[in-house]
Design brief:
CATH topology of the largest domain in chain B: Methylamine Dehydrogenase, Chain H
CATH superfamily of the largest domain in chain B: YVTN repeat-like/Quinoprotein amine dehydrogenase
Structural class of chain B: mainly beta
Largest sheet of chain B: 8 strands, antiparallel
Distance between the termini of chain B: 54 Å
CATH class of the domain at 98-280 in chain A: Mainly Beta
Helix content of chain B: under 10%
CATH architecture of the largest domain in chain B: 7 Propeller
Order of helices and strands of chain A: HHHEHEEEEEEEEEEHHEEE
Number of helices of chain A: 6
Number of helices of chain B: 3
CATH topology of the domain at 98-280 in chain A: Glucose Permease (Domain IIA)
Number of strands of chain A: 14
Largest sheet of chain A: 10 strands, antiparallel
Strand content of chain B: 35-45%
Shape of chain B: globular
CATH superfamily of the domain at 98-280 in chain A: Glucose Permease (Domain IIA)
Strand content of chain A: 15-25%
Number of strands of chain B: 31
Oligomer: heterodimer
Radius of gyration of chain A: 20 Å
Structural class of chain A: alpha+beta
CATH architecture of the domain at 98-280 in chain A: Distorted Sandwich
Largest interface: A-B, 59 and 73 residues
CATH class of the largest domain in chain B: Mainly Beta
Distance between the termini of chain A: 35 Å
Radius of gyration of chain B: 24 Å
């Protein structure tokens, strides 16, 4: 799925490059946030009081341990992908509901757009796209707390970030309208949190959801494919956005980054990963001026 | 996972063969048989057949019993009457033809015997390599520098720059410059080259697509500019004088279209419409095009075949990834998420009948599969080991494996969805439409 408006993405991506944009405080809570959340996912509402009596002292203990151990700062150990998250839609995929869009990573389209709309993501498509009609309900892929509604992390016109207790965040982009959930609100996996839109605001040209998996610092982005539990082979059979080679090949190492699930993480502001001196397939040329017509 | 040595690779094959040995059939060697011929008849290399049978030499004797994997429709030779000892259709036969992770986007050679892949083996040069479809050379053999080859193997383009490339006629190694990068370029069987160029727009569905056509090896041939459409792609050639596009005929059209363009007259004709057109594939004879419509208004979505002459659209009883096996049959991997394995079905586009040919016992990675030109094999990129595998396909005359209850498609003749504007030719030709080959009878309502 394409975002062809470089201006739009430059604006939304600019904070990454400048590195001076204030982030919501919740994002920086680090160990405290993690620890207090570690006990939440299994607690249903009715069990909460009982569990809290156990979890709360344990949580305090862990906060103490974490604080002592992490002074001044130790990067949290992020979870490995193991299919631990759900899909961002409740309905099953299909020709009437939703399908895949542009893959994460070293795509042929990202190669073409590496110096424009993907320049702050090391030239790669740093999210995974899902083709869906405007207005399709979007659900949280895992339990967490809403950390941004229309925050500074791109994917206009509206986006939503949910911080998960495992150290990762999910970003839902190109939403049709401002999400109705509030910053600080706890959400459950599968809970409707937004509705999908179109990166080009037409609901005709590029209706899709852009999903990113980030660390809480918003400096690193990861391939959602390993984290989301889905039949990727089946979904990619009928991807309406992919015709022909899915990934660009470097002629120096043509076997690198050619699979849905072996794409590299992206460091915001890092150097291009796909500035291949010799690439395959070649980009289609621009249309020459009409003056050249016979 | 990448096999480092020959031993490991051989053992992978051995494992595959042992696992599959219950699918093998005893075969009694007949007069005139050779190990080479028997191996070829079942899509194996001599080495593989030796491994399967514990042979060390290549000599076989009349009356000797060998285990042969079954290949439907390909008995090694005529069997004596009443002696059904030859291979019979039993189950899938697959051969790993590449190293795991080595190669993607394999293309069949015109003789259906080899696969062409872009590769750079350790210490080797980057280029197109040939992988024998019998798995006998998983490292491949260097064939040439990276190039875009025509389906018949007669022509190639080597990219030089953003809008320059060298066209090559391989029969006499003639060379000619062409003003394209080689990206989104397609050779016609007659040696004409068509390529897509793109303009700018602030919406993807408005991006102007202008196709150019030239005959690089015809002296004085001009570069022809075809009418511009919007937000689409060049699919390829329907026949020697017609190209196939997708996109909006007019920028403001609500739906995308599958369109054919007659190159001499530059006449554009809409064949079918739908939003999110994908999976567009031209039949080997150019008479039909299969395509998917997805995420349009419910009721309009699905997989369809359109007749390129009559513009009759027929909905198909399957939805998935389709390739043409021959002019009348599609092979389809149905979209059935959550299954342990994908299956391969064959669809008769005239009758709508569907049969399941085989279970892959595997899954195809991101839709990377192709049917050989002779329709007897398919190559796919395996989710299990990331290697290329070749499947032997039952041919049409043979009873299918694992027959399922035949579903009969309602072969209802249907015009393009009624809510879509009726397909109207752009600038309808004043005279007769461009010549098209004689058509087989169109599917009819019983």
């Amino acid at each position: 799925m394409r975002i062809l408006s470089p201006a739009l993405s430059l604006i939304t991506s600019a904070p990454f490059a400048k590195g001076n944009q204030a982030r919501p405080a919740a994002v920086d809570d680090g160990p405290v946030t993690h620890t207090s959340f570690d006990h939440q996912p299994t607690a249903s509402q009715s069990q909460l009081p009982k569990l809290l009596s156990i979890a709360f002292p344990l949580g305090l203990l862990l906060i103490g341990v974490a604080s002592a151990r992490t002074t001044p700062t130790a990067p949290p150990v992020l979870p490995s992908p193991s299919g631990q998250y759900g899909l961002p839609f409740a309905a099953p995929p299909g020709p009437d509901t939703w399908l895949l869009g542009q893959f994460y990573g070293n795509t042929t389209f990202a190669y073409k757009e590496r110096a424009t709309q993907y320049q702050y993501g090391q030239g790669l498509h740093f999210g995974l796209d899902f083709t869906a009609a405007c207005g399709t309900p979007v659900v949280a892929i895992s339990d967490g707390v809403v950390s941004e509604v229309d925050g500074p992390h791109g994917a206009a016109p509206h986006n939503l970030v949910i911080d998960h207790p495992d150290g990762l965040s999910s970003l839902y982009g190109h939403l049709l309208q401002k999400a109705t959930v509030k910053v600080g609100q706890r959400v459950r996996r599968g809970e409707v949190v937004a509705v999908s839109g179109d990166s080009q605001l037409s609901c005709v040209s590029e209706p899709h959801l852009h999903l990113e998996i980030r660390d809480h610092s918003h400096l690193k982005l990861f391939n959602p494919v390993g984290y989301l539990n889905a039949d990727w082979a089946a979904l990619s059979l009928v991807d309406p956005d992919v015709d022909g080679p899915a990934f660009e090949q470097s002629l120096d190492r043509p076997g690198t980054w050619q699979f849905l699930d072996d794409q590299p993480p992206v460091r915001i502001g890092g150097s291009f990963l796909n500035a291949y001196p010799r690439a395959w397939p070649p980009l289609a040329p621009g249309t020459p001026a009409l003056s050249g017509k016979r | 996972m990448r096999a480092k040595g020959g031993w490991l690779f051989t053992s992978l094959f051995l494992g595959a063969l042992v696992c599959g040995s219950s699918l093998a059939t005893p075969y009694t060697v007949q007069k005139g048989d050779t190990l080479y011929r028997l191996a070829r008849s079942v899509g194996l290399s001599v080495t593989q057949l030796q491994v399967l049978n514990g042979l060390t030499g290549v000599d076989v004797k009349v009356g000797q019993v060998l285990e042969l994997p079954s290949v439907p429709g390909s008995p090694p030779q005529a069997q004596p009457q009443g002696a059904p000892s030859g291979p019979i259709p039993s189950a899938r036969t697959t051969v790993q033809v590449s190293r795991p992770g080595c190669c993607v986007n394999a293309q069949w050679t015109p003789d259906s015997m080899q696969l062409s892949v872009l590769n750079r083996p350790p210490g080797g040069a980057v280029g197109l390599y040939r992988l024998p479809a019998d798995g006998s050379s998983p490292d491949g053999v260097f064939s040439r520098a990276p190039a875009l080859l025509s389906p018949d193997g007669a022509y190639a383009i080597e990219p030089l720059g953003p809008s320059s490339a060298t066209a090559q006629r391989l029969s006499d190694n003639a060379r000619a410059p062409v003003p394209t990068s080689g990206g989104s370029a397609f050779w016609s069987p007659a040696g004409q080259l068509a390529w897509a160029t793109y303009g700018n727009a602030n919406r993807d569905d408005w991006i102007p697509l202008t196709v150019f056509v030239t005959s690089p090896f015809t002296a004085g041939a001009a570069v022809q500019r075809l009418p511009t459409v919007y937000g689409g792609r060049l699919i390829g050639w329907l026949n020697a004088t017609t190209v196939l596009l997708t996109g909006h005929l007019n920028r403001t059209d609500t739906r995308r279209a599958v369109m054919k363009v007659d190159v001499p007259s530059k006449t554009v004709q809409v064949l079918a419409r739908g939003n999110w057109l994908s999976g567009v594939q031209v039949s080997p004879d150019g008479q039909r095009v299969v395509y998917r419509v997805t995420l349009d208004t419910p009721g309009l979505n699905g997989m369809f075949v359109v007749d390129t002459a009559t513009r009759t659209v027929v909905p198909l009883p399957l939805f998935g990834s389709a390739r043409w096996q021959d002019a009348g049959h599609l092979l389809v991997i149905p979209f059935e998420p959550g299954q342990d394995s994908q299956r391969l079905a064959q669809l008769d586009v005239m009758s709508g009948a569907v049969v399941t040919l085989l279970s892959l016992q595997d899954k195809v990675v991101h839709d990377d599969w192709q049917v050989s030109p002779d329709g007897r094999r398919a190559v796919y990129l395996s989710q299990t080991d990331r290697a290329l595998h070749v499947l032997s396909l039952p041919v049409s005359e043979v009873s299918p494996l694992l027959p399922e209850p035949t579903q009969t498609a309602p072969p209802v003749l249907q015009n393009p969805p009624s809510t879509a504007p009726a397909p109207a030719p752009l600038n309808p030709p004043l005279t007769a439409p461009p010549p098209v080959p004689v058509l087989p009878p169109a599917p009819t309502t019983p």
